[in-house]
Write a structure and sequence with these properties.
With about 450 residues, the protein is mainly alpha-helical. It has 17 helices and no strands. It starts with 10 loop residues before the first helix and ends in a 5-residue tail after the last helix.
């Protein structure tokens, strides 16, 4: 029996991909967290502005996650072809995917920007919160094409087993956003007028542009691909769209859960949606943090599948699970120590802080479960198992999250209802992925 070569799934190789991916991953939610922290500490109408930023941030995340599934699909295709030593076969696929995403993002912007008031009214926003939401969104939405093109290029980088380029782009974008947030939101007397919530939107837009410019530089200088579109569709383009469509439906159901949560919180009152905005953005921050190891699983898993190295694929799942859970436990410990102080970074309103503290422990408690779910989710994406991921999310959302939310809300649990529903949701996702992976790959021969 041949000795198992575990160099592909060594601690060093996994972390070479995971650590830059963690840093790159947290940069995107860091932009939203920075907006919320800065806006939440503006003296006038801070609760309404914070609520608007949270609602819009959730909707933007939903739309971007849904539309950016071609990033995951192109990453899987590139990593699988890299493992099979056939990158030449997808030379035209990459520019075709980028052009497709550009057209799609322009279409979505053209639909959603004029309908912003209707969209955020559906979140139960009204009055000043609705006005803030509309103006904030119509600026942020201009960045759709910038973000989706950047994410597609990041998917190519990940497929090539390199996440450090995306990390450098994301960190630069986050730095630009933080600096401009303070300059544009608060202003500088005699030089820059205070633009409040709209200033935060412009800061995010400039940050997205900076990230795209850097991503294009790495793309042209460091990868074997180009941006010359071919009129003849690559044979892998249709399978890529099928995979992306399945992931689209998966992510749509995922975001239905988030939209429901925010709609219920908004209906409970402005203090509840303000607290929910902080909780959700911290949850997303943790998710992107842990998702660094899922990115490693995605990239390495796809490459191992391309090489038909199933034994190392099983080793990969065990090692990344251990690392991801460890990260989750460290996050729980840090937040447990600074439990009361964390909320004060985002808002000073005593009612909002009390609501935040009352439910934050549930967010922390579910982190190890999140780690398992996200890690296997990443591996399954790299393996191209989009149909199963779609079906599992549909079950988790409509047979898990929604009934749990309705029942808990019936008993008047409010914020507790929302986060109990999320707990049930993540339990279903984690268990479904682990069971499927064990059945399919535990005893599979090379």
């Amino acid at each position: 029996m041949a000795k198992l070569d575990t160099s592909a799934v060594s601690f060093k190789n996994i972390n070479r991909i995971a650590i830059p991916a963690i840093i790159a991953g947290i940069a995107e939610p860091l932009i939203s967290l920075t907006d919320i922290a800065v806006i939440g500490n503006v003296e006038n109408n801070s609760v309404e502005a914070l609520a608007a930023a949270g609602i819009v941030g959730s909707f933007l995340s939903a739309v971007i996650w849904i539309l950016a599934q071609t990033k995951t699909a192109i990453s899987a295709k590139v990593s699988q072809h890299l493992g099979a030593n056939r990158l030449h076969a997808i030379k035209t696929l990459v520019p075709q995917t980028i052009v497709f995403n550009l057209l799609l993002s322009l279409f979505i912007y053209g639909i959603t920007a004029p309908l912003a008031q209707i969209i955020f009214s559906a979140y139960n926003a009204e009055g000043l919160i609705l006005d803030y939401s509309v103006s904030y969104y119509q600026i942020r939405a201009i960045g759709f094409p910038l973000t989706l093109l950047t994410f597609t290029i990041f998917g190519v980088f990940r497929g090539l087993q390199n996440t450090s380029w995306a990390m450098k782009c994301s960190l630069s974008g986050a730095a630009v956003n933080i600096i401009l947030d303070y300059l544009l939101v608060y202003g500088i007397d005699g030089y820059i007028p205070a633009m409040h919530l709209e200033g935060a939107a412009y800061a995010s837009l400039v940050a997205q542009a900076a990230m795209l410019i850097m991503a294009l530089w790495f793309f042209f200088k460091k990868t074997p691909f180009h941006l010359k579109p071919s009129l003849k569709l690559n044979p892998e383009f249709k399978p890529l769209l099928v995979m992306a469509a399945n992931l689209f439906l998966r992510t749509l159901s995922l975001n239905i859960a988030i939209m429901l949560a925010n709609a219920y919180a908004t209906d409970y009152g402005e203090n509840y949606i303000a607290a929910q905005s902080i909780l959700m953005n911290i949850w997303l921050f943790f998710s992107f943090f842990i998702d660094g190891y899922a990115n490693a699983g995605n990239a390495i898993g796809g490459k191992l599948l391309g090489a038909k190295d199933y034994k190392n694929l099983w080793e990969l799942s065990k090692k990344i699970s251990k690392y991801a859970v460890l990260i989750a436990l460290i996050l729980m410990l840090i937040c447990g120590i600074f439990y009361n102080q964390i909320g004060m970074l985002f808002n000073k309103d005593e009612v909002v802080l009390a609501l935040f503290a009352s439910a934050f422990w549930i967010v922390l408690l579910m982190q190890p479960i999140n780690a398992i779910a996200f890690m296997f989710d990443g591996i399954f994406k790299g393996l191209g198992e989009a149909a199963y991921l779609r079906n599992l999310l549909l079950v988790a959302t409509f047979l898990g999250f929604t009934p749990a939310l309705l029942i808990s809300d019936y008993f008047g649990l409010k914020l507790y209802a929302i986060w109990i529903a999320f707990f049930v949701w993540m339990l279903i996702r984690a268990s479904g992925l682990v069971i499927k992976f064990r059945r399919k790959y535990l005893n599979k021969e090379v």
